[in-house]
Design a protein that fits this description.
The complex is a heterodimer of chains A (957) and B (159). Chain A is built from 29 helices and 37 strands. With 957 residues, chain A is α/β, with parallel strands linked by helices. In chain A, helix 13 (468-481) runs parallel beside helix 19 and helix 16 (513-520) packs across helix 17. Chain A starts with 18 loop residues before the first strand and ends in a 7-residue tail after the last strand. With 159 residues, chain B is an alpha+beta fold. Chain B folds into two domains: 7-67; 79-158, Glutaredoxin, CATH 3.40.30. Chain B has helices spanning 7-21, 28-39, 46-54, 58-67, 87-91, 94-105, 147-158, and strands spanning 79-84, 111-112, 118-123, 135-137, 140-142. The chains are: A alpha/beta (957), B alpha+beta (159). Chains A and B meet through strand 6, strand 18 and strand 19 of A and helix 4 of B.
Chain lengths: 957, 159
């Protein structure tokens, strides 16, 4: 197993249709017009030495190493900035070129310390490779001048700057830098943050993260600069410590729903670094701080590696063998079913696990438990997406691939914060915005995407939390009453009479911007402007997040979005569409795999006899034709005493689900709670059996991202806990008497493909061949489906549905005058179980309450003060952060840290169709406080108690 | 004695200068000139205000400020003497004059005297090669320098 090699063509591919033929070193080559000579040469296999050029960035032409000669033209142009032309003849090698390149490199070397130790991770850079290739043998200028090299050997070197090691993951050593500005350009062109610059001029030029060090700068630590650096100036600290990797495997990131492809670079079984893979179609060679750097949790000391059992949740844990754990669970589950009935147990699949693992868990429940009590954490995030898009378009998924954004003219972002939640997609989006695409943002907060360097939304509608449906219907009102809809599209693709019915509804006065604007706290002209821009601005694409779904009218909002796209004809081609930004790495996959109580894999209702037949004959069991319990129903039933046992794979419902006290009461009422996770998470405080989980690095499988892209997850090391998660579920099933004999996850995928039409052609061999595919992938579309609904909606005609605004029952009043909305931050992920166990805590080590200066002043709060945050459901304390990002009347916090317990505050209101909880709206009061709430104190004590692990007693002497 | 400006005051005055120039094409350099005219230097606290107003990053503003030697990072002395150190002036005895001026003022190039009276800076050609060696004192150019004129300049700026 060697390193996965990626060719750097030096400049990006040209997109022209027109082909140009030229001769390079006597060989003919034909490339698209606009291609650089450098790239054309590499198409022939001729690598021209280069330093400042890389194919992730536009050509720059500063290093002067890549010079060539062109017959009939004077001078020696740089091959990176010179485009090909018909019939020209190029020479890449000659005595003159060799002398120029050696001369340039000699000057670089005179200002660059040589003789690094390649074992310490240095000396393996592109710079070193170019030195070798040009054959530099001497340095007539010496290195003792006024230059970058560290002082010593009789020189003062007044320009020397010490290394910047402030960032936890990479170091910047100015002495190694050649100021090619690849890092600066990567930060601008690829990441779009503009955190780096060239400081000073001439000989004093240095790369700098503005006037401060890296950590205190605007840098978001995405690592694009480290990846771009051709020297050892910017280097991963892990490489500096361990040396260069010796092998690599392509796999998929296990953080958010973007689903970035990475090369996991290894030394033996030790991970040295993660490098984004340029052929990854979701991320195109880019990454964020989490995917590239925050993998340290996989060998954190908190990770549990042995199964554990206890009789009561007050007891300390007792480590047991796998066999004992499985036997215990099987015995308990069978006892509970015997005692309380077949429906008294259930399970929860995880959006963090692979498709194969999720499939097995739901299979275990349907086949082994004999009921449909299976649900997934998508219940609390994107279940309304499934319902809303299913009703209107006929399929429960986003309509586009991420590449589509490159052809978008107007982007509408609703209730999503892509720069924090989906950073790699945000970078691709920002690139398009800098090219001139227009932006509309609907969000109560002024998020970074509303305005940050070089991008600015044309319209920001800072709507009051809970008024999504009213505002979206109001946009439709403008589109209909001003005649901005696409009649031809609607007549062809939808039912005209349904449209007319919907149009007459949205045209009502109550939906006008003037009425809705007053209700939602926004300027009616902004609503009108946004509607006109979206309808008539060219290709319009909607991207939305949990700010849409996690409401009492989440499903209605999704339908309102679908209506807007249909009414304006923005469906079924590149650059348009309706795109949910999925939260977790495999939310899409978990939903696809039949994790919901009413659906078998592929979104087929459990009541369908034909579908049940497929599985009944394959699994040799009768399946229940009634949908089972959803997570909130399971907890309700537990409190009532009819639900007694649960298998929870990779989800921390206690921290992530709403109304924590209700969740804990439900869990406490059960007799056998089995938690299968990497860490003793908050839910495990109420568990009787703990099964250690494996990380994405330790198993094979697939994740399906927000584009419906099925990406391979490849095992790079043996599971530290001994068993991959799919093996754990299989052994549990075997213990419960099921005849399962999967030898490898590929066999599970084969079963999925055999039984699910949209996965028909998917297999590991096929994925290896294609890289990745977007479902549906079947005989009709063997290469997968990047864009859906091209010639017609999946359900036939697109369906317009009336979206009546019903205000949530969660209302502000004198006791709770503020609206709390929740979200996340770039450096942390979900409940933080992983990212809190990495160096990412330097950016965010506690949850803070964002509050507007007016609201803070009314309450006598200063920045950083402890505050009590109380709702009808409960109260907690945290520290305040005073900012104008939130509007007056709105407060905001993240839920990454268990001590904060933000979900003690959130209520049990939920979406009418899917029970998705209303996290985004809670009426609260904020008051000064001087310490943790009683609940926090009690909880801390209980958590400490329940995490005790009994160690075997030392044998007496 | 010069007091460090309170950062809120700097922000307010910076905002007024930005408003004056924001409509221009490429407003950053005129804004920085305006700020230097107002404060005598470009205060660090002004950078984020400019970045926010122009919707560019702090790093970008920093890059531009540091590129131009004429933008000062800290307040200059009451008088600024720029002595030409370029080739023509060197050939007419500029080096000796530079050494003499440093000695008379008791400071080196790029330094400000402890009493805040004078800042000494090199210039690389003032366009007065025909009258070399030359200097610029508080914005006024002076040609045909000799030891006597240098002493006179030193006396004036120390006064």
């Amino acid at each position: 197993m060697g390193l996965v090699h990626e060719t750097d063509y030096g400049t990006p591919a040209a997109k022209s249709e027109k082909q140009v033929t030229l001769t390079i070193d006597g060989r003919s080559v034909t490339v698209p017009e606009g291609t650089s000579i450098m790239r054309a040469a590499l198409e022939l296999g001729t690598e021209i030495p280069k330093l400042c050029a890389t194919d992730m960035l536009d050509s720059f032409g500063s290093c002067r190493v890549c010079v060539v000669e062109i017959e009939g033209r004077g001078g020696t142009p740089a091959s990176c900035t010179t485009p090909v032309a018909e019939g020209i003849s190029v020479r890449t090698q000659s005595n003159r070129l060799g002398a120029i390149r050696r001369g340039v490199m000699e000057l670089y070397v005179s200002d660059h310390p040589l003789g690094w130790d390649s074992n310490s991770g240095l000396g393996g850079s592109e710079f070193d490779a170019v030195l070798k290739s040009v054959g530099l043998t001497e340095n007539r200028y010496g290195t003792a001048g006024r230059n970058h090299v560290a002082p010593g050997n009789g020189s003062l070197n007044i320009d020397y700057i010490a290394r910047d090691t402030s960032n936890p993951y990479f170091a910047y050593d100015p002495a190694q830098c050649i100021v090619c500005s690849r890092c600066v350009r990567a930060c601008e062109e690829v990441q779009g943050t503009f955190a780096l610059t060239v400081e000073g001029r001439g000989f004093e030029s240095r790369i700098a993260a503005g006037p401060t060090n890296f950590l205190e700068s605007e840098c978001v630590s995405c690592g694009a600069c480290v990846q771009a650096c051709p020297t050892d100036a910017l280097r991963e600290k892990s490489v500096l410590e361990k040396g260069m990797p010796t092998s690599s495997v392509v796999t998929t990131c296990a953080y958010c729903g973007v689903g970035c492809s990475f090369k996991a670079e290894m030394q033996g079984e030790e991970l040295v670094r993660m490098v984004p893979w340029k052929d990854g179609k979701a991320n195109r060679g880019h990454s964020c701080v989490k995917g590239r750097f925050a993998y340290g949790y996989s060998n954190h000391k908190d990770r549990i590696l042995n199964p554990m059992v206890r009789e009561k949740i007050g007891d300390p844990w007792r480590e047991v063998s796998w066999d004992e754990a499985f036997a215990h669970i099987a015995k308990e589950f069978r006892r509970i079913q015997y005692q309380y009935g077949k429906g008294a147990i259930g399970g929860i699949t995880s959006s963090r696990c692979t498709n194969e693992e999720t499939y097995l868990v739901q299979k275990l429940i349907r086949q082994g438990f004999g009921n449909n009590n299976v649900d997934t954490c998508a219940r609390v995030c994107h279940s309304p997406t499934g319902y809303g898009l299913g009703q209107t378009y006929g399929t429960s998924a986003g309509t586009q691939d991420f590449d589509s954004v490159e052809q978008t003219d107007v982007v509408m972002i609703i209730g999503a914060n892509p720069t924090d939640g989906h950073p790699v997609f945000a970078s691709r989006l920002k690139k398009r915005l800098r090219q001139g695409a227009k932006l509309i943002v609907l969000d109560p907060r002024r998020t970074d995407i509303v305005r940050s360097p070089h991008i600015e939304a044309q319209h920001h509608l800072p709507l009051k939390p809970g008024t999504n449906v009213a505002v979206l219907t109001s946009l439709a009102h403008v589109i209909v009453t001003e005649g901005l809809f696409d009649e031809a599209f609607i007549r062809e693709r939808c039912d005209w009479s349904e449209f007319e019915d919907w149009a007459s509804f949205v045209a009502e006065e109550q939906n006008s911007p003037e009425v809705v604007g007053a209700l939602a706290g926004i300027d009616p002209d902004e609503i009108r402007g946004a509607a006109r821009l979206y309808a008539r601005g060219g290709n319009g694409a909607i991207y939305y997040g949990l700010g849409v779904t996690e409401h009492s009218q989440g499903s209605t909002t999704v339908m309102a979005i679908a209506n807007l796209a249909m009414a304006t004809g923005n469906i079924g081609r590149p650059g348009v569409g309706v795109n949910p930004l999925r939260g977790q790495n495999n939310v899409q996959g978990a939903c696809d795999m039949g994790s919901f109580p009413h659906e078998l894999p592929g979104y087929r209702h459990i009541s369908g006899d034909a579908v049940r037949d497929i599985y009944e004959s394959l699994w040799g069991t009768k399946l229940d034709n009634e949908p089972g319990l959803r997570i909130p129903n399971m907890l309700d039933a537990a409190v009532e005493g009819t639900f007694k046992g649960i298998y929870i794979q990779g989800e921390d419902i206690l921290q992530s689900d709403p109304d924590t006290k209700h969740v804990s009461a439900g869990l406490a009422a059960m007799e056998c709670v089995v938690v299968h996770d990497l860490f003793l998470n908050e839910t495990a405080n109420y568990a009787h059996v703990f099964l250690p989980g494996s990380t994405f690095l330790e198993k094979d499988g697939t994740f399906t991202n927000a584009e419906r892209r099925i990406n391979r997850v490849r095992k790079v090391m043996a599971p530290k806990n001994g068993l991959a998660d799919w093996e754990v579920t299989q052994k549990l099933a075997q213990e419960m008497g099921l005849d399962w004999n999967y030898g490898h996850p590929s066999a599970i995928m084969d079963e999925i493909a055999k039984t699910t039409p949209s996965f028909q052609l998917v297999s590991y061999d096929y994925l290896d061949k294609m890289g990745s595919v977007q479902w549906p992938c079947n005989e009709k579309s063997p290469a997968g489906t990047p864009i859906m609904h091209i010639d017609g909606f999946v359900r036939g005609k697109g369906k317009f549905i009336r979206t009546e605004y019903v205000a949530t029952d969660e209302k502000t009043g004198p006791r709770f005058p503020l609206l709390l909305t929740t979200g996340r931050i770039l450096s942390q992920y979900n409940v933080g179980a992983q990212t809190r166990r990495t160096e990412n805590v330097v950016w965010h080590d506690e949850d803070r309450l964002e509050i507007h200066p007016h609201d803070a002043e009314n309450r006598g709060l200063r920045d950083g003060d402890w505050v009590r945050l109380a709702s009808r459901a409960g109260e907690t304390t945290l520290r305040a952060l005073i900012t104008e990002r939130v509007a007056p009347g709105v407060v905001y916090t993240t839920f990454h840290h268990p001590n904060t317990q933000a979900n003690v505050i959130t209520t049990d209101f939920s979406d009418w169709a899917t029970n998705c909880p209303e996290y985004k709206v809670t009426a609260v009061q904020v008051t000064p406080s001087n310490g943790p709430s009683d609940w926090q104190v009690d909880y801390q004590y209980q958590a400490r108690q329940s995490r005790r692990i009994a160690r075997p007693l030392e044998a007496a002497e | 004695m010069r007091m460090q400006q309170a950062s809120t005051q700097i922000a307010a005055r910076t905002a007024a200068i930005i408003a004056e120039h924001q409509g221009l094409e490429g407003p950053l350099l005129p804004i920085l000139h305006g700020i230097q005219d107002e404060f005598g230097y470009v205060p660090q606290d002004a950078l984020p205000v400019i970045a926010d107003a122009l919707n560019i990053s702090n790093a970008e503003v920093h890059g531009v400020v540091t590129f131009y030697h004429d933008y000062r990072r800290e307040p200059a002395g009451r008088h600024v003497v720029k002595l030409c150190r370029a080739e023509a002036c060197q050939s007419m005895g500029g080096d000796a004059l530079a050494a003499k001026l440093e000695a008379l003022l008791g400071i080196g190039f790029h330094e400000t005297s402890a009493d805040g009276a004078v800042t000494l800076e090199p210039a690389y050609c003032l366009g007065l090669c025909a009258c070399a060696p030359s200097a610029m004192v508080d914005g006024e150019v002076i040609g045909r320098l000799d030891a006597e004129r240098i002493e006179e300049i030193a006396r004036e700026v120390r006064a």
